[in-house]
Design a protein that fits this description.
This protein has 4 helices and 16 strands. It has about 260 residues and is of the alpha+beta class. A hairpin with a 4-residue loop joins strand 10 and strand 11. The model has no long low-confidence stretch (mean pLDDT about 95).
């Protein structure tokens, strides 16, 4: 499905920060069928990835000053007014980590951490809305917050993005969905003792046609399976994986697809 506009609070862009950009390009292009386009950047080596010319996200190589950081995926949410968003994040107890930065004529971004330390970014579009496709193989389809303070997270993100929430009882836990209007755009899981020392974080989910076939391909390409393929009743089949550099993400084959 083609995307032409994002509402405030909708996930709009995915960005991989890695230590070997050439290797990341090879892995993800072979995995999802993406194509890449190198772009000039003050950050160093940087490229966009796309399907048939429609931008989906970006990848960049971490500079030497950030070499201690692990390879990781960043998530962006659309906002109408970046300055107003910065003020809301501060008032709600979050922190500005980076920016605001203007990216040529494309738009303006900033990166934050919420009160628990989970990192996310926002994008105020000018000439580039963000990802131009969703709902098909290789595109971002869902985002999920792992939180040790769900009540605090609900308050924070409602104040920042205006989200509403809906709680569903699962077999072993309650699952929160984030709503923009009536549309569910993401979810939240409460972190229990079983999570150990894993910090609160946002997880990105990419749509795939066949979860098990993709797991075989991921391991063939040098990636790892962190959580094996698992069925979610009435939703689909998902798994948590990592690329060869340790960048973690999830894949899901949706029943509705």
């Amino acid at each position: 499905m083609k995307i032409t506009h994002y509402l405030q609070g909708q996930p709009c862009w995915a960005e991989l920060a890695c230590h070997d950009l050439a290797a990341a390009k090879d892995f993800y292009c072979r995995l999802f069928g993406w194509e890449t386009a190198d772009m000039p950047s003050t950050m160093g080596d940087f490229c966009l990835f796309n399907l048939e010319g429609d931008d989906l996200g970006a990848m960049y190589q971490l500079p030497e000053a950030m070499a201690a950081l692990p390879t990781h995926w960043n998530l962006y949410f659309a906002v109408d007014d970046l300055d107003a968003c910065i003020a809301r994040v501060s008032a709600a107890g979050g922190s500005l980590k980076m920016g605001p930065h203007t990216v040529a004529e494309a738009g303006t971004m900033a990166q934050f951490s919420d009160p628990e330390g989970a990192v996310f970014a926002v994008w105020q579009a000018h000439h580039h809305i963000g990802a131009k496709r969703m709902g098909e193989h290789g595109t971002l389809c869902w985002v999920e917050l792992a939180s040790r303070d769900p009540a605090g997270a609900k308050d924070f993100y409602a104040r920042v993005f205006g989200w509403h929430s809906r709680v569903s009882a699962m077999a072993d836990f309650d699952y929160t969905e984030w709503l923009v209007g009536e549309q569910a755009v993401g979810g939240m899981m409460e972190m229990t003792e079983r999570w150990g020392q894993v910090p609160p974080h946002w997880m990105l989910y990419f749509t795939v046609n066949d979860c098990d076939a993709m797991l075989a391909k991921i391991t063939e390409l040098g990636g790892s399976v962190c959580v094996p393929a698992t069925d979610i009743p009435e939703v689909g089949r998902f798994a948590v994986v990592s690329d060869p550099q340790g960048g973690m993400f999830s894949i899901i084959a949706l029943l509705a697809a």
